[in-house]
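Methods, example record. To illustrate the input and output format used throughout this study, we show the complete record for Glutamine--fructose-6-phosphate aminotransferase [isomerizing]. The sequence lines were provided to the predictor; the line carrying structure tokens was produced by it.
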Amino acid sequence: EKGGFESFMDKEIHDQPHAVADTLLGRTDTAGRIVLDDLRIDESVLRSVDKIIVIACGTAAYAGHVAKYAIEHWCRIPVEVELAHEFRYRDPIVDERTLVVAISQSGETMDTLMAVRHAREQGAKVLAIVNTNGSTIPRESDAVLYTHAGPEIAVASTKAFLAQITAAYVLGLYLAQLRGNKYPDEVTQIMDELRDMARKVQTVIERGEYVRATARSMKDADKVLFLGRHVGYPVAMEGALKLKELAYIHAEGFAAGELKHGPIALIDEGQPVFVVVPSPRGRDQLHSKMVSNIQEIRARGARTLVIAEDGDDAVRAYADEIFWIPQAPSLLQPLLAVVPLQIFAMALASAKGLDVDQPRNLAKSVTVE
Ligand code: M6R
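The corresponding predicted structure is encoded as:
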């Protein structure tokens, strides 16, 4: 069943190009417009939504954090992302014009299910982005947008994460189309770029051996930091989560802009720091800010492990290791940048002789609160 791979996780990492492609399949009509037939929420309701709250746990919540950047940018609707177990207990402001988006691979996570029930009791519409057909969360939601990642067996989520981002992006584009924030040809263009991501994810996987070798050389690391900005920030947190759960290493993801506000005190000689570098082609200052951050931590002794776009020569001078990813539009970069982090955590855990599919103390779906 592992299809010749060492572990389910390894197989599932390799399934990722398909997870992205299949999640996009059948979402557009011949004219290139997004059609979500199975949505079951009235278009007039979706047009009047004035706030979106994403609820999820763990990796699914990080997919929500990534999607927030894209949905706000495309639709101009405020998006909050909240851990399901926090949402439920804080008296959230939710009404008929709130769209709650519940993201879950299993569709059975108890914390997320309880938050779904709570949101519906308050009058919100709930749309579930779920991977497992016929599971409880979509049954109890108003609408469902399935991710088509196929069964995910390894406890550490990989392909479901890419599929969740993809599905949430389709939802964002659909809302933008419906509400007139985007012209049809803009939607078609972004959908084409999304479809092209499957091929690029495959390229990152094919470059995995260098990541694995680096991981093997770092099996004695006891603390690893991850930095990102913008959509790279949730990617940094996801990279840290992978390393915690698989390799039992203390790992933490930070927004790079936060360094001076505290975390830079953690940097000492030899401290490994992963840095997810934004595209140098972006119109904002993010890339140059991040290059300065890399310089700052390197000057304090950090060992910098940099994820950068092909052709980004500015990072060369300050990187100890560079994991190259293909060029992509800024909002789509997370689909590529997370892959070396997944491979790194898996390879480091294997090098330590750990069971990557079944890490200690964890269950694939958390059906208790
Ligand atoms: O099935 P779900 O997507 O609802 O699960 C949510 C989290 O429990 C899950 O993502 C967890 O964080 C994974 N072990 C992460 O790799």
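Annotations derived from this record:
The pocket of 5-amino-5-deoxy-1-O-phosphono-D-mannitol is lined by residues 57-60, 104-106, 109, 112, 155-157, 241, 245, 362, 365-366 (CB under 6 Å).
Strands lie at 51-56, 79-83, 98-104, 125-130, 143-146, 223-228, 250-255, 272-276, 303-309, 321-325.
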